[in-house]
Amino acid sequence: MEWLERVNLVLEYIEENLDGKIDYAYAAQLACCSTFHFQRMFSYIAGIPLSEYIRRRRMTIAAFELQSCNTKIIDLALKYGYESPTSFNRAFQNVHGICPSAARMRGISLKAFPRISFKISIKGDVEMNYRIEKKEGFRIIGVKEHLSMNMEESFARVPEFWAETIKNGIIPKMCALMDQSLPALLGVSACMDGENFDYYIAVATDKTALENTVDYEIPAATWAIFECVGSMPKAIQELQKRIMSEWLPTSGYEYADAPDIEVYFEGDQYSPTYRSEIWLPIVKRK
Fold first, then answer.
1. pLDDT per residue over 56-104, tens digit each?
2. Do 78 and 30 lie in a common domain?
3. How confident is the model at residue 51, as a pLDDT?
4. Residue bearing the bigger pLDDT, 209 or 126
5. Cα(264)–Cα(236) distance, rounded to whole angstroms?
6. Full residue range of the structural domain in which residue 270 is found
7. Are 53 and 116 within 8 A, CB to CB?
8. Burial letters 204-215, b for 16+ CB under 10 A, else e
9. Residue 229: predicted pLDDT
10. Residues with Cβ < 8 Å from 41, sequence gap 6 or more?
């Protein structure tokens, strides 16, 4: 099955279960990747986190139901996965700007968020420089943060974690230990267990871990390594989106079960010529 068919199959599964439980792990299985990788991929391609897309679709359907029948609000809350009318009211108001009871009034203005369907449109106007490399496993040491799989939360938390790590002064000590075959700071997303993942700020090294650091083994894998040139964080965020929306769907590869790695070389990260890399773990698509 082609990649595009898989992702649209996930969207069909979501639509069929808006009034029931949506299992993110099962959705990712349909897309043939991990839960973490699927949520990240969805966010980049759709321009909206998976959880927010589901919330908007549920509130759209709930609004239709409020206007067309006399279903009690407490029953609607349970139907669309909310434990209480209060949490349902809050979600409904965040989407529509009014409370659910007001949605029954004639002439009231509501919002509708249509179902997404993915189609691939390859522009080809801006090149992406990449190479495919097989690498042996290697060890990293650094600091880590245990994050929720909720991509909205993690996108906000990771920059804060970097700022805290820079402030506490440990980065120069880690850099003194780095393996010269990979002389760079690494941002590593690993240990995806379905609901959470660990994000490491680390260096590759075989030396003894520092106090207040942890180590982790990066497995042997095949990587698509993309060159990124530009000011951080905008340049790397834009490249990540292009990889997910343009390169991966048509590459003949899919996500492998290995960490995502961001590689930050020495230099002025705010410079328009700053160089970094994105390492995407890949396997040949079946």
1. 999 999 999 998 888 899 999 899 988 888 999 999 999 999 999 888 8
2. yes
3. 87
4. 209
5. 10
6. 130-284
7. yes
8. bbeeeebeebee
9. 95
10. 31, 33, 244, 248, 255
